[in-house]
Amino acid sequence: MKILLIDNNTEHKRALAEALVGHDVEVQKYRPGLDFHTADKDLVILSGGGGEGREIYDVHQAGHLWYQDEMDFVLKCDKPLIGICMGFEIICRAYGAKVEEMPEVLEGKYDLVVTKKGRSILSYDKLKQHEAHKWRVKKAPRGFRVLANSPTGIELIKHKKKPIWATQFHPEKGGTLSLKGLVNQTH
Predict the structure, then answer these.
(1) Rounded CA separation 88/156 (Å)
(2) 76 — alpha (psi -120 to 50), left (phi > 0) or beta?
(3) Separation CA 17–CA 173 (nearest Å)
(4) Number of structural domains in the chain
(5) Contacts for 75 with CB less than 8 Å, ≥ 6 apart
(6) 147 touches 121 (CB < 8 A)
């Protein structure tokens, strides 16, 4: 499969590379004004962030958020799409959800509750996943179904009509739902 990986300066580059072994992956490091190379790709993945300290509400220039171009891309993208952590936040924000900062960073393996809809799609009752984030979404963006939650917020969503999936957790770091499993779900 040909994959475009948009690197939001993830701290998990090695885990992503290992999780995507066997695929033809082109990596583009995100910056405002990026020309997204999707023409021959089968899937687009938006990585997590954290490596350079940019956050979802950081401003690039007056009236323009740092991730605004990526949010605009998400709304126009005609390829299957997976968002991980920062990628989840970008997708949620692009589709109108409020992304809020938590009082403290959440990091480690956590049990997630799979919703009824999530059970019918994933065939799991619970997920144990690696989390490393300080932002959360409590109300699903328009057009999305919530597939899993945690006490801090929404953890896994899927668009109702488009092949878009997003995880607040890091499936590339292992857990019940691996990135490989998620990639397989998109096709």
Answers:
(1) 9
(2) alpha
(3) 11
(4) 1
(5) 94, 95
(6) yes
pLDDT tens, position by position, 22-42 = 999 999 999 999 999 999 999
pLDDT tens track for 69-84:
999 999 999 999 999 9
Q: Which domain holds residue 109?
A: 2-185
Domain of 132, CATH number, reads 3.40.50.880
pTM: 0.95
Q: Give whole-number Cα distances, 154 to 60, 80, 144, in Å.
A: 27, 21, 11
Give the chain's length: 187
Q: DSSP for the chain, please give it.
A: -EEEEEESSBS-HHHHHHHTTTSEEEEEE--TT-----TT-SEEEE---BSS---TT-EEETTEETTHHHHHHHHH--S-EEEETHHHHHHHHHTT---EEEEEEEEEEEEEEEPHHHHHHH--SEEEEEEEEEEE-SSPPTTEEEEEEETTEEEEEEESSSSEEEESS-GGG-BSS-HHHHHHHT-
Query: What is the spatial distance between Cα 140 and Cα 129, in angstroms, rounded to a whole number?
Result: 20
